[in-house]
Amino acid sequence: MSGTAELADLYAAIEEATGLLDITCSRDKVWPVLSTYGDSLADAVIAFRVTTDARSVGDFDCRFTIPKDVDPYALALSNGLTAETDHLVGALLSDIEGRFPLACYAVDFGVVGGFKKIWTFFPPDDLQELATLAGIPSMPRSLADNLDLFVRYGLGSKTGVIGIDYPHRTVNVYFGKPSAEYLEPKNILSMLREIGLPDPSEQLLKLSQDAFGVYVTLNWDSSKVERISFSIMASDSTPLPVQLEPKIEHFVKNAAVEGRFGYGVALSVDGEYYKFQSYHQWRPQILSLMQMKSTEDPVQR
């Protein structure tokens, strides 16, 4: 998708999606990202996401995969998408790249906020031990401090994806689907209380049982788990078992969806919020990267 016409088509699709939410797409934020990574987008998985999180109100995210032979952070720096930093967040990607084989990357940006995140996907047959990742010098100490908790509550001792959020200086650690016993409400409730998060709603406890994956958000300033999220894959976007504000409901009902529709529920110290993701360009290989079997039926809603 390196041609200007192809990138213009993608920009138009992003603009159309944001219009469903009455959000103005900033060309000054979007076009530099598309032109920076344009050579990698023809075969990418491309998704659009909106969230009810107060930090993201008024913004709309686009995310896409890129090949492992492209250095996404170096490109972001050289093209002015993000600034150099002495914070450890700026060293983490290179520390991961120098130690582990990767399957591919992904990049996330907002149509208002601009460049946000980079994900590293490990090969599905070579998931990485959390204990080993915790030993990386630039990794938040909160990963090492919570290893025992993650194992005790069935999240596992390995991960397939690490996400690095540069503006917020946080790290996401993704786990595959826990066994059914660990997704029982009493276990989820116990885990959240031990983490120090507020008691969840009945809706969260119900939705978490359908999760194909769980991820936690960590930072460099505390040993605590900042946030936990449960990801669900559905066969289509409607009807979802969530009460939505009108603009987000309009997006969910009218967004073009290719392949699957993803949504999730997250809990932080500030409360619960929801995420909704439509796929503009779907590639089946993303299922294995998300530790899902290709034969697995998505949740029917």
* Biggest sheet strand line-up: 1-2-3-4-7-8-9-10-11-12
Low-confidence spans: none
Distance between the termini: 33 Å
- Number of spatially distinct domains: 1
- Structural class by sheet pairing and helices: alpha+beta
The helix content, as a percent range, equals 25-40%
Strand segment count: 12
Largest sheet: 10 strands, antiparallel, barrel
Give the amount of beta strand, in percent.
Answer: 25-35%
Q: What string, H for helix and E for strand, traces the elements in order?
A: HHEEHHEEEHHHEEEHHEEHEEH
Judging from the principal axes of the Cα atoms, what is the shape?
Answer: globular
Subunit arrangement of the protein: single chain
Can you put this structure into words, describing what you see?
The chain is of the alpha+beta class. The chain has one domain (4-289). The chain is 30% helix and 26% strand. It is built from eleven helices and twelve strands. It has helices spanning 4-19, 27-37, 72-78, 89-97, 130-134, 141-145, 147-152, 185-195, 202-208, 246-254, 286-289; strands at 46-51, 61-67, 104-110, 114-121, 128-129, 158-159, 161-165, 170-175, 213-219, 227-234, 261-268, 271-281. The strands form two sheets. Strands 1-2-3-4-7-8-9-10-11-12 form a ten-stranded antiparallel barrel, surrounded by five helices. The chain has a two-stranded antiparallel sheet with strand order 5-6. Strand 7 and strand 8 form a beta hairpin. The mean pLDDT is 91.
